[in-house]
Design a protein that fits this description.
binds pyruvic acid; Pyrv_Knase_C; binds adenosine-5'-triphosphate; alpha/beta; six-stranded mixed beta sheet; pyruvate; 24 helices; eight-stranded parallel beta barrel; Pyruvate Kinase, Chain: A, domain 1; M1 Pyruvate Kinase, Domain 3; magnesium; TIM Barrel
Length: about 625
């Protein structure tokens, strides 16, 4: 668009408004509308969800936070992490998962769930009779291979691969390296003596790292397999794989999910579908659904093959706790920056984790260094920041989430200034060297140029929002990675995409109630696998139109199909979603991005610059006009 064209658009008079869209400017009406749309008063009045924070918050649930799920969502949590390292029976997590879904639906706020697999992490057992022990510097402590609890003089671990092979002089780091021992004597195949170098309190189930030796453990343990099956069955949005060392480790988990997908498909095909107790119905999942895999980068070995790992994974976590122990602490900031750049270049989500607001476990305010750390992760371009013990066991989980949210918002405002005009100068440069070679990911033909043009047009027109249709999640993510200065409202008819997009920077998902897109004859992934010919006009009345849209909710005829009707329904969906409508007023410039009249859904090919509310108005005018014509011709 030319500069002149853009400025005309900016100075154009707002549209004359209709009662439906006038309503969103009136707060009483807004409340009525939100209640009718099932959106609670808490969200309507919560400060957090009415302000646009782009960086997403992942919060670990634990004993102190499970009873506070609702308050945590209202405070700003976008993704809950369930750490299965601390879970012996996966079924024990079912009520927690159900509770997250119930509260999220009642509040009308999308929340994703991330199940974190333990992986081959070596941990100490519990302690008895006290829940923790004190390690005194200079004292001697026994390290024993056993399934029994430890005690004041003995640390036990049920993993056999360490005590039998560790050598005198090797370092033993406990609790993310906060406590340190050195091996001084071998007593038997199952026992060594260690001297405490750095002491302190050691609680149950804390990690044990032995950086001086390589340990051969499978990436996906038997416990992980059982937990991963449970996560699949419960339709968790993300599964994090700990201690990934090679791309094949992710491949092993993918194979497990592929097998589960095949079993389900076969059972359905034979008319014997397994009872689904997840509470998520099949039509809320996209075709070929499986949990998305987040690889946790926490070992030096994984850094050697990081491109392959990013390529096969659906996203990355910078797991700074173990990374700081397995590598050296001083290397962590540079590794964080590199991982964020590479993952952004691959258009995948990246989470920055661990000790972000650690002091808030016991204090209502963080340290200045912690505030700086969170802000710098935002400047680096992370999609999400993560809270661990601060939220799982800390005294101030709600305050911690509120603080993290406030730091992110302030950093985002600052980074727009730092970036010059706004975020549209990309945080990373999409340069060829950083592009992941040989990606298996299907990218539709025009996707990148549409995303470039949409972000540029939205910025040029000072649009209040981008409104992006999606059935694959591809286009909103491409836009998000270009860091536009305005929010990206992602409208999708698919429940799993609605939840999953909650973890992506700057994306505000809206579940479309009105829009039903016919799947024609196959999803993009199936097309790609089989390379079938697509019938161009399978189930539609109009020759070039592959979308089926019901406009009943607009009061129009039953199965009217055209682009304006789709946009009008989208505007209605956005208006009814109070958590996004607050930063979008009728008459504001908006940039729509969608796939219209393509051979099948999922192909973004169109940008439309418009004023918010214009489509509802023109669609209604069109319906009235058609109705008059019909009457005239009958008359
Ligand atoms: N489901 C849970 N049940 C009981 N305690 C938990 C649970 N989840 C977390 N915790 C407690 O919160 C602390 C911090 O949580 P987090 O998940 O970060 O643990 P971690 O063991 O340090 O992490 P990781 O497994 O990623 O190394 C844990 O050390 C544990 O004490
Ligand atoms: C989150 C995690 O596993 C780590 O930081 O080590």
């Amino acid at each position: 668009m030319s500069r002149q064209g853009a400025s005309q658009l900016i100075t154009a008079k707002p549209l004359q408004q209709e009662p439906l869209i006038d309503a969103i400017k009136d707060s009483d009406e807004l409340e009525k509308l939100s209640l009718a749309a099932g959106i609670s008063q808490e969200v309507l009045h919560s400060n957090e969800h009415l302000q646009e924070r782009r960086t997403k918050i992942v919060a670990t649930l634990g004993p102190t936070s499970v009873p506070k799920i609702k308050e945590l969502i209202v405070a700003g949590v976008n993704v809950f992490r369930l750490n299965f390292s601390h879970v012996s029976d996966p079924e024990s997590q079912r009520p927690v998962i159900e509770s997250i879904r119930k509260e999220s639906a009642a509040l009308g706020i999308p929340v994703a769930i991330l199940g974190d697999l333990c992986g081959p992490k070596i941990r100490c057992n519990t302690f008895a009779p006290t829940p923790s022990i004190q390690l005194i510097p200079g004292s001697t402590i026994r390290l024993v291979h056993s399934s029994e609890p430890g005690n004041a003089t003995t640390i036990t671990t049920s993993i056999s691969q360490i005590v039998g092979v560790i050598a005198i002089g090797h370092r033993v780091l406990l609790n993310d390296g906060n406590l340190r021992l050195v091996v001084t004597e071998r007593v038997s195949a199952d026992e060594v003596l260690c001297q405490v170098v750095v002491g302190g309190e050691l609680k149950a189930k804390k990690g044990i790292n032995v950086p001086d030796m390589a340990i051969a453990l499978p990436a996906v343990t038997e416990k992980d397999k059982s937990d991963a099956k449970f996560m699949f069955k419960m339709r968790l949005d993300y599964v994090a794989l700990s201690f990934v060392q090679r791309a094949q480790d992710v491949g092993d988990l993918l194979e497990l999910f592929n097998n589960l997908q095949s079993q389900e498909a076969l059972a359905r095909h034979n008319g014997n579908p397994l009872p689904d107790t997840s509470g998520i119905s099949l039509d809320q999942l996209e075709e070929d659904w499986r949990p998305h895999i987040i690889s946790k980068i926490e070992t030096p070995q994984s850094l050697l093959v990081i491109d392959e790992i990013i390529n096969i994974s659906d996203g990355i976590m910078v797991a700074r706790g173990d990374l700081g122990v397995e590598c050296s602490l001083e290397q962590v900031p540079l590794i964080q920056k590199t991982l964020i750049r590479k993952t952004n270049a691959a258009d995948k989500p990246v989470i920055t984790a661990t000790q972000m607001l650690e002091s808030m476990i016991n204090a209502p305010v963080p340290t200045r260094a912690e505030v700086s750390d969170v802000a710098n992760a935002v400047f680096d371009g992370t999609d999400a920041v993560m809270l661990s013990a601060e939220c799982a066991t800390g005294e101030f989980p709600i305050e911690t989430v509120q603080m993290m949210s406030s730091i992110c918002r302030n950093a985002e405002a600052g980074s727009r200034l730092l970036q010059g005009r706004d975020f549209t100068i990309p945080l990373y440069k999409r340069d060829k060297k950083e592009k992941i070679i040989g990606s298996e990911k299907y990218v539709s033909e025009f996707a990148h140029c549409i995303a470039d043009a949409a972000v540029a047009a939205a910025s040029e027109a000072s649009a209040s929002a981008m409104i992006v249709f999606t059935t694959t999640s591809e286009m909103p993510i491409f836009c998000s990675k270009r860091r536009p200065s305005m929010p990206i409202i992602a409208v999708t008819p698919t429940g799993s995409i609605y939840r999953r997009l909650a973890m992506h920077f700057g994306i505000f998902p809206v579940l479309s109630n009105g829009l039903k897109i016919s799947t024609v004859s196959g999803s993009i992934s199936r097309l790609r696998r089989t390379e079938v010919e697509i019938p161009l006009v399978p189930q539609t009345h109009h020759e070039n139109d592959s979308h089926t849209v019901s406009t009943e909710s607009l009061g129009g005829g039953p199965r009217l199909r055209n682009t304006d009707a789709i946009l009008a329904l989208t505007e209605r969906d956005v208006i009814e979603n109070v958590s996004v409508v607050k930063f979008l007023k009728v008459g504001d410039a908006v940039c729509y991005c969608a796939g219209f009249h393509g051979p099948f859904p999922g192909l973004s090919n169109t940008i439309k610059m418009s004023r918010f509310g214009e489509s509802i108005r023109s669609e209604r005018a069109h319906l009235n006009w058609s109705e008059s014509l019909r009457r005239l011709s009958i008359g």
